[in-house]
Amino acid sequence: MLKQLKKKFPLQYNICYENYIGLTKNPRWLLMRKVGRFPFGKVVRDFLPYKNEHFSQEFVNTSCTLFPGLDIDVVVNSLQENGFYLGLNLSKEIVTEIADFAHSHACYGDYKPNLGFFYNQKQLAEKHYDRIFKLAGYFNTALLCPAIKKLQNDPTLLAIAGKYLECKPVHLSNQLWWSFAGETTTFEKMKTFQMFHYDQDDYRFLKFFFYLTHVDALGGPHVCVRGSHKQKKLSHLLLPKCETDEDIISYYQQKSLVTIYGKAGFGFAEDTFCFHKGTTPIAQDRLMLQVEFGTIDYNMQHDIRDPLILQTMINS
User: Is position 270 within any domain?
Assistant: First the structure.
């Protein structure tokens, strides 16, 4: 019954679920979710007692970075103007280490801790669990994969985040996930972030994305709407929901849509208060990593789970 209601009334279900989680687990997170997307949200943030300390770039040592030679000012200026910056490239060694991790550790269908399987067992897992998976993610990534831990602590990424957020950046989360190739319904697109939407993870936040598989037009490229972190119509702010391509193009115009292609290792920074979406991979599955920073850790975004609650086909 609950699944039917969720599928028939996804927006209403999500609002009710968010309110329930916020009221029972983290009221200040719920407050941020309700007011942070409005211009007066910044005023509310400035009066909160748990503000972060000011960031000073001069104390950041970028000598041991994975991104040597990157101009932090250029990155931040692009983020401020466009909402994104393209061209954060990982070395082959880092890409290989993370890809090897993804193939040698269990992922979890729909990010559910009880739906674990290894990537090469996907078809067996769908039969075992009697469901089709369009997405599967990993838990405890920084604890288990040193390369992801390096990215989480990389001084250049911290410097970019600190200058953009105008405070000492706080690590909010890592997310490593597969988007599986194949046709998807509208409901499945909503569940797998493949319709236009914007995030509200903090009053200010920034994400770094890295392709770990080759992404061309058939590989599920990420799409973002240039400048939409600064400009939204009132209905988008009052009732956040997944928007159709037609609605986004009608308001922002086709020329504002930026489709991001890249080989394995290609990365980009994005303020995902911009409208954005993934597209459905057609030719091959897409593996992607996200590292996120903000101003306050609400303990709501991380991928840390007690290993004792994680179940795979072998131990379920």
Answer: yes
